[in-house]
Amino acid sequence: MDKSVSRHSSGGRHTRHHAPPFWQADRPYLHEQQISDARFRRLGYIMAFLAGAINAGGFFAFARYTSHVTGSMSLAADMVYTREWSVLLLALASVCCFIGGAAHSAWVIFWMRQKRFRGSFGFSMWLEAVYLLVFGLFGATLLHVDLGWDGMVMPSLALFQLCFIMGMHNTVVTVLSGGAIRSTHMTGSATDLGIELAKSVYYAKNHPRLPHVRVNRPKMLLLAGLMAAFLGGGVVGAWGYQTAGHHFALPVALVLFVLGAGSVGYDVKLRLKFILLRWYKKRKNLRKKSV
């Protein structure tokens, strides 16, 4: 919510506290039940849409879903049994790249918080946009990498870069929401939506012997919206890759730049103001000494 209202027991008056913008927060913005902020829902939908676009485009580029860690782990287990070591190496490398991207994004967020920047989430979006820009411009230049092991050939490093980017993409909303939602993994969203639907049916029975169950309808709408946005993004991403190839990532990078511009710009203006103020005080002290 944009404004929160608290009542003082002594005077009975209402005091309005202005909450900071969510992407300028220095701590997770949400908790389990606090998902009524329309701005956060919009951000979640946009990030899920972009995740669907990247994932679908990556499938057409590499015949693999770059965010599907569960599938990669299952594939690795199957390849151990069948002793197809090249595919095993590919699956494990994809998982490691996704983990590395998540760790990288989280480290950036935590480091910027320590340095008292307010735009940690936006800056992580900017970094992801830069990597997507590199992918979009140069992803098609190297189709395969010959490892030199009995003619073993791996897909291009662009695949691993895209897995890394998807790890970053999921981390931003995960940390921002305090772990409440994910933007790239719809399995968790579908599970949570099923749980809320079960609560709704359970509560609708209104049986006097059953304990009260609280149905979180805003969460149900959020989860359904995330899944719909991911699906829509997948359609757009598939069309984008068929139309523009690897360059489909460039509009996605642009959207991420726009999303992060507010918080990064806030930090830049704040730092510039601080530098100018310090310079002004220094000049003022020098004048006093000269007099």
UniProtKB/TrEMBL annotation:
Residues that span the membrane, as ranges: 43-65, 85-111, 123-145, 157-176, 220-242, 248-268
Organism superkingdom: Bacteria
Coiled-coil regions listed in the entry: none
KW Protease (keyword) present: no
Organism, as annotated: Neisseria animalis
Name used for this protein in its record: DUF1275 domain-containing protein
Compositionally biased intervals (Basic residues): 10-19
Location of region: Disordered: 1-20
Keyword set, alphabetical order: Membrane, Transmembrane, Transmembrane helix
